[in-house]
C-alpha cells in the first residue's frame, strides 16, 4: 500500500509539474462548456439541443459528451505512463525497486484516475451551479452523473494504461487507446445496424452505454457497477501481466 | 544451471499468465452474466424517478392474493438489433415485478412467429404483429414483431397488445388494475342536450377510458330516467340547453355521492366559417348552488397561449392586402404550464400542462359552501373579452390589442378548471321538475326563438314541479368543472397533454389514484428563465401603449433588450468557465505545493 501511494504521489506530481494537467484542464473545461452551451448532441438516437436553444435546466448534453471526451483525455493522460518510461529506460529502474508490479500498476492507475475525476468535477460542478441559477436543475441527476462518470473514467484510464504498456511511443499509445475507446463508444450507434444477437452483445460491451443508460440519467444500477468493476479488474490484471513480462525479460 | 532455471521460471510464468488471462475472461463473462440475471438492484437518484420501478407498481404486485399468470407473446428470434434490446429490457422489467411478487406472479412465454398455436391465441386476444424494418449493412431487414402480453387473474383476462419499455409500467399496471377489480367501474357520458348526438365529438376521449372502464351513454334523463347505479363518474361534455329534469337527475346523482366532470362551453367558435354561436348550458342553477359562475366572454391570456396559423395583412397604399402566412400567439387559446397548475394534488402536480381553446373563466362566489381548488389557471396578464374578438386573427391587430390591454393594466389570474368538494343545497329543494312534455317544449322553443329574433330577453321556462322526494345536503360529492369543452374534442385540440389531464381527472374522480400517480411519472418541465423576456419587462416594453410610442421607439427598445439578454448569457457562460478554470488551477497549485513539501513527494 505504501508503495502504491509512493507511485501515486510520484505520478500525480509528474502530471502537475508538466504542462499536461494545465493544457488538459483548459481544453477539457472550455470544450465541454462550449459544446454544452452551443452545440448539444446533434447525432445519435436521442438528439439534444444546446443549452440556450433547448432552454431546459438539465446537464444531459454535458454528460452525453463525457464518453467521447474521455476517449481522448484518458489516453492523453496515460499515454506516457508506461511507454515513455520504457523509451527512456526508467521502467527498468522502477521495476528493480523493491515493489510489486501490481503496486506500480495500481499507483499509476490511481494517479490518472484521480486526475480525470478531478477534472470532471471541476468542469461539471460550476456548470451545474450556473444551470441551477437559471432553472430548476435536478441535482440528483448531477450526483448520479458524477458517480457514473467516476466509473467510466476508471475504465477509460485502465484502457489507456493497458495500451501504454504495449508500445514504446507515446503517440502510438494515445492513438491506440483512443481508437479502442472511440470504438467502444460508437458501438451505441452501430446497434441498429447489427443483427440481433450481435447488437445485444455490442450494447452490453460498451462502457459508454452503461454510463449513458444509467449514471448519466441519475440512476445507480448494480449491474453497471459489476460491469465497470470487472472491466477495470481485467484491464489492471492484464496490465500487471504485461508489465510483469517485461520484468522477467529484463 | 541458473540460466536454465531462469528460463524454466519464465516459461512457467508465461503459462501461469495465460491461465490467468483465461480465468480472467471467464470471470468477466460469468460475472456479467450473473449480474444481469440476478442483480437487478437499482436506485434512481433523480427527482422525477423515471428509471426505477415505482413503489406503487411494486406494491400492487406485492399485494396480489392469488397467482397472476402473464402470458408473454414476444417474437422469439428477433432479427433487428434495437428491437432485441427493447425485448431484453421488457423481460428485465417483467423479471423485476416477478421478484417483487414473492412467487405470486409467473411468466409464460409464447412465440407467435414460431408457433401457429401461439399465433392463433395472439389473434384471439387482439395482440397484433407490427412490421418493423431497419438497415443491416447494405440490405433492409423487415420483420413482423410481437411484443404483447395477456394477464390472467381469478378467471379474468386483460391484454397489453403492444408495448415498448418506456411505456411498459403504465400499460402493464393499468391492465393489472383492471383484472384485480371484482366489478368494472362505470363511466357515464352525457353529451350535448343529453338526448343523443348524431356525431359524438368525444370519441377519442371515450376510447381512452374504454381501456379501463365500462363507458356508457346516459340518455333519456329528461324523460324521468335516472343515472344508472353502476356509474361512478358522470362526464357532462359540452352541455347545451339541458332540460331542467336532466339537471335534476345530475343533481340527485351528486347528492347520492356520485362524482362528475363538467366540460362547459358557452360559445361555439368556428374560425373557418367565421361563425360564433352563444348558448346556455342549462346548468346555471346547479353552478349557482355550488357557488360558481361561468364568465360572460372568453379568456384572453396575454402571457401564456398557443399559436395559430394566420395570414398577415399588408397595407398597400391605403388598401389592405393578404400577405404571407405566419404563426402567431393567439391569446384566446390559453396554454396552462406548470405555473398555472395546482401543485398540491396528484392530478395536476406532475402534468406537463394543458391547452384550452376559447375558454370561459370560472368565477367563485365568496359564499360557496363547497371547498374549491384551482386546478388550472391563467397567467396574471389575463382578461375576459367579448367573444366576437375571437375572430381578430391579424398579427398586427392581435399585437395592438395585447398592447392596449397591457397598458390598461387590469389583468388578473383566471380560473379555468376547479375542483369542488363537499355537500351543497339542491337547487330543486322546492320540488323536482316535471319530466319533458313535448308540447310544452315546442311552445317554449317558439317563444324563445321569437324573443331572440325581436332582441328581447329570453323568457324563463315555466317549470312544473312534482311531489317526489328531493335529496339535499345529503352527502359529500366531488365535481371538476372546466370552463372549456373544446380541449377534449376529437382531433388536434385533444393534445397529448390534454389526454393526460383528462385521464388523470377521470381516474382521480373514480378513486383510481394509483393510475394517476403512474401516469404522472413524466419528466417535469425544467425551463430556464427567459432572459430576453426579463430584459423586455425591465425596459417596460410590455407596458407601452400605442398612443405613446412609435415603431422606432419599440424597435430601439427591442434591440436594447436583445443586446442586454445576450450580454447576460455571456456573463453566465463566462462565470461557469472561469470558475471551473480558477478552481482547477487553485486546487492543482495547492496539491502541487503540498507535494513539494512532502519529503520524497516529488520523484519525477
Question: How is this structure best described in words?
Answer:
The complex is a heterodimer of chains A (250) and B (604). Chain A has 250 residues and is mostly helical. Helix content of chain A is 82%, strand content 1%. Chain A is built from 11 helices and 1 strand, in the order H-H-H-H-H-H-H-H-H-H-E-H. Chain A is globular and about 55 Å long. Chain B has helices at residues 2-38, 55-62, 81-100, 116-125, 168-180, 203-210, 244-255, 284-290, 346-349, 395-408, 438-454, 496-509, 513-519, 531-538, 551-597, and strands spanning 42-44, 68-74, 105-110, 130-136, 139-145, 147-153, 156-160, 186-191, 214-217, 231-237, 259-263, 267-270, 275-278, 292-294, 298-301, 305-316, 319-336, 354-355, 362-364, 371-377, 382-385, 415-422, 432-433, 465-466, 477-482. Chain B is an alpha+beta fold. In chain B, strand 12 (267-270) and strand 13 (275-278) form a beta hairpin. The mean pLDDT of chain B is 85. Helices cover 37% and strands 24% of the residues of chain B. At the A-B interface, helix 1, helix 2, helix 6, helix 7 and helix 9 of A face helix 1, strand 1, helix 3, strand 4 and helix 15 of B.
Q: What's the short version?
A:
With 250 residues, chain A is mainly alpha-helical. In chain A, helix 2 packs antiparallel against helix 4.
Largest sheet of chain A: none
- Strand-residue proportion of chain A: under 5%
Instruction: Please describe the biggest sheet of chain B, giving its number of strands, its sense, and whether it closes into a barrel.
Output: 7 strands, mixed
Order of helices and strands of chain A: HHHHHHHHHHEH
Number of helices of chain B: 15
Integer count of domains of chain B: 4
Strand residue percentage of chain B: 15-25%
Mean pLDDT of chain B: 85
User: Total strand count of chain B, please?
Assistant: 25
Helix content of chain A: over 70%
Gross morphology of chain A is globular
CATH topology of the largest domain in chain B: Rossmann fold
Q: Which structural class best describes the helix and strand composition of chain A? A: mainly alpha
- Count of β-strands of chain A: 1
CATH class of the largest domain in chain B: Alpha Beta
Distance separating the two termini of chain A: 25 Å
User: What count of structural domains of chain A?
Assistant: 1
Amino acid at each position: 500500500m505504501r508503495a502504491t501511494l509512493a507511485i501515486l504521489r510520484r505520478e500525480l506530481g509528474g502530471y502537475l509539474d508538466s504542462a499536461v494537467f494545465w493544457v488538459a484542464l483548459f481544453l477539457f473545461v472550455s470544450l465541454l462548456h462550449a459544446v454544452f452551451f452551443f452545440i448539444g448532441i446533434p447525432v445519435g438516437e436521442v438528439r439534444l439541443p444546446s443549452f440556450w436553444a433547448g432552454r431546459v435546466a438539465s446537464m444531459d448534453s454535458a454528460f452525453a459528451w463525457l464518453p467521447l471526451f474521455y476517449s481522448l483525455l484518458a489516453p492523453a493522460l496515460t499515454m506516457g505512463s508506461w511507454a515513455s518510461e520504457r523509451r527512456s529506460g526508467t521502467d527498468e529502474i522502477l521495476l528493480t525497486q523493491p515493489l510489486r508490479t501490481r503496486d506500480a500498476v495500481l499507483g499509476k492507475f490511481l494517479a490518472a484516475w484521480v486526475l480525470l475525476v478531478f477534472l470532471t468535477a471541476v468542469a461539471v460542478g460550476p456548470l451545474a451551479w450556473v444551470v441551477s441559477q437559471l432553472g430548476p436543475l435536478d441535482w440528483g441527476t448531477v450526483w448520479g452523473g458524477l458517480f457514473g462518470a467516476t466509473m467510466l473514467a476508471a475504465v477509460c484510464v485502465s484502457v489507456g494504461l493497458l495500451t501504454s504498456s504495449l508500445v514504446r511511443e507515446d503517440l502510438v499509445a494515445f492513438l491506440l487507446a483512443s481508437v479502442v475507446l472511440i470504438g467502444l463508444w460508437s458501438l451505441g450507434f452501430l446497434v441498429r445496424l447489427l443483427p440481433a444477437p450481435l447488437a445485444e452483445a455490442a450494447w452490453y460491451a460498451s462502457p459508454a452505454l452503461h454510463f449513458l443508460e444509467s449514471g448519466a440519467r441519475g440512476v445507480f444500477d448494480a449491474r453497471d457497477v459489476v460491469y465497470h468493476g470487472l472491466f477495470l479488474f481485467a484491464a489492471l490484471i492484464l496490465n500487471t501481466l504485461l508489465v510483469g513480462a517485461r520484468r522477467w525479460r529484463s | 544451471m541458473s540460466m536454465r532455471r531462469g528460463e524454466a521460471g519464465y516459461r512457467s510464468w508465461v503459462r501461469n499468465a495465460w491461465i490467468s488471462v483465461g480465468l480472467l475472461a471467464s470471470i468477466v463473462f460469468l460475472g456479467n452474466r450473473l449480474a444481469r440475471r440476478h442483480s437487478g438492484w437499482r436506485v434512481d437518484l433523480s427527482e422525477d424517478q423515471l428509471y426505477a420501478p415505482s413503489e406503487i407498481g411494486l406494491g400492487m404486485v406485492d399485494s396480489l392474493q392469488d397467482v397472476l399468470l402473464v402470458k408473454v407473446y414476444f417474437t422469439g428470434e428477433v432479427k433487428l438489433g434495437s428491437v432485441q434490446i427493447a425485448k431484453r429490457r421488457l423481460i428485465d422489467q417483467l423479471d423485476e415485478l416477478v421478484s417483487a411478487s414473492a412467487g405470486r406472479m409467473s411468466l409464460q412465454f409464447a412465440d407467435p412467429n414460431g408457433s401457429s398455436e401461439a399465433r392463433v391465441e395472439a389473434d384471439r386476444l387482439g395482440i397484433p404483429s407490427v412490421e418493423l424494418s431497419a438497415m443491416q449493412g447494405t440490405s433492409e431487414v423487415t420483420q413482423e414483431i410481437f411484443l404483447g402480453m395477456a394477464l390472467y387473474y381469478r378467471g379474468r383476462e386483460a391484454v397489453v397488445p403492444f408495448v415498448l419499455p418506456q411505456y411498459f409500467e403504465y400499460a402493464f399496471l393499468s391492465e393489472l388494475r383492471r383484472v384485480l377489480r371484482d366489478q368494472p367501474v362505470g363511466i357515464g357520458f352525457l353529451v350535448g342536450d343529453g338526448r343523443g348526438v348524431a356525431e359524438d365529438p368525444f370519441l377519442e376521449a371515450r376510447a381512452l377510458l374504454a381501456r379501463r372502464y365500462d363507458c356508457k351513454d346516459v340518455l333519456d334523463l329528461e324523460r324521468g330516467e335516472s343515472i344508472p347505479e353502476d356509474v361512478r363518474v358522470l362526464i357532462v361534455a359540452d352541455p347545451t340547453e339541458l332540460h331542467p329534469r336532466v339537471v335534476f337527475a345530475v343533481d340527485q346523482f351528486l347528492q347520492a355521492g356520485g362524482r362528475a366532470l363538467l366540460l362547459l362551453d358557452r360559445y361555439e367558435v368556428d374560425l373557418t366559417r367565421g361563425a360564433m354561436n352563444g348558448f346556455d348550458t342549462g346548468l346555471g342553477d346547479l353552478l349557482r348552488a355550488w357557488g360558481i359562475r361561468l364568465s360572460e366572454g372568453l379568456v384572453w391570456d396575454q402571457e401564456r397561449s398557443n399559436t395559430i396559423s394566420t395570414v398577415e395583412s399588408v397595407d398597400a397604399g391605403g388598401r389592405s392586402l393578404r400577405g404571407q402566412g405566419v404563426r402567431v400567439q393567439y391569446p384566446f387559446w390559453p396554454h396552462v404550464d406548470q405555473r398555472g397548475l395546482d401543485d398540491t394534488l396528484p392530478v395536476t402536480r406532475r402534468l406537463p400542462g394543458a391547452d384550452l381553446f376559447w375558454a370561459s373563466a370560472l368565477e367563485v362566489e365568496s359564499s360557496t359552501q363547497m371547498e374549491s381548488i384551482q386546478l388550472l389557471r391563467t397567467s396574471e396578464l389575463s382578461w375576459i373579452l367579448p367573444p366576437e374578438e375571437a375572430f381578430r386573427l391579424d398579427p398586427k391587430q392581435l399585437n395592438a390589442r395585447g398592447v392596449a390591454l397591457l397598458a390598461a393594466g387590469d389583468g388578473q389570474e383566471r380560473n379555468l378548471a376547479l375542483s369542488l368538494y363537499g355537500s351543497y343545497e339542491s337547487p330543486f329543494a322546492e320540488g323536482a321538475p316535471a319530466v319533458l312534455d313535448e308540447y310544452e317544449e315546442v311552445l317554449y322553443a317558439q317563444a324563445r326563438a321569437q324573443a331572440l329574433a325581436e332582441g328581447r330577453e329570453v323568457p324563463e321556462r315555466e317549470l312544473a314541479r312534482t311531489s317526489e322526494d328531493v335529496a339535499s345536503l345529503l352527502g359529500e360529492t366531488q365535481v371538476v368543472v372546466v370552463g372549456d369543452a373544446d380541449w377534449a374534442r376529437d382531433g388536434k385540440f385533444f393534445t397529448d397533454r390534454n389526454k393526460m389531464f383528462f385521464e388523470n381527472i377521470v381516474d382521480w374522480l373514480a378513486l383510481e389514484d394509483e393510475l394517476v400517480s403512474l401516469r404522472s411519472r413524466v419528466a417535469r418541465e425544467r425551463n430556464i428563465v427567459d432572459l430576453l423576456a426579463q430584459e423586455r419587462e425591465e425596459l417596460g416594453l410590455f407596458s407601452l401603449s400605442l398612443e405613446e410610442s412609435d415603431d422606432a421607439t419599440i424597435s430601439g427598445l427591442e434591440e436594447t433588450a436583445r443586446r442586454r439578454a445576450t450580454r447576460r448569457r455571456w456573463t453566465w457562460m463566462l462565470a461557469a468557465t472561469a470558475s471551473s478554470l480558477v478552481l482547477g488551477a487553485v486546487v492543482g497549485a495547492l496539491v502541487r505545493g503540498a507535494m513539494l513539501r512532502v519529503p520524497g513527494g516529488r520523484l519525477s
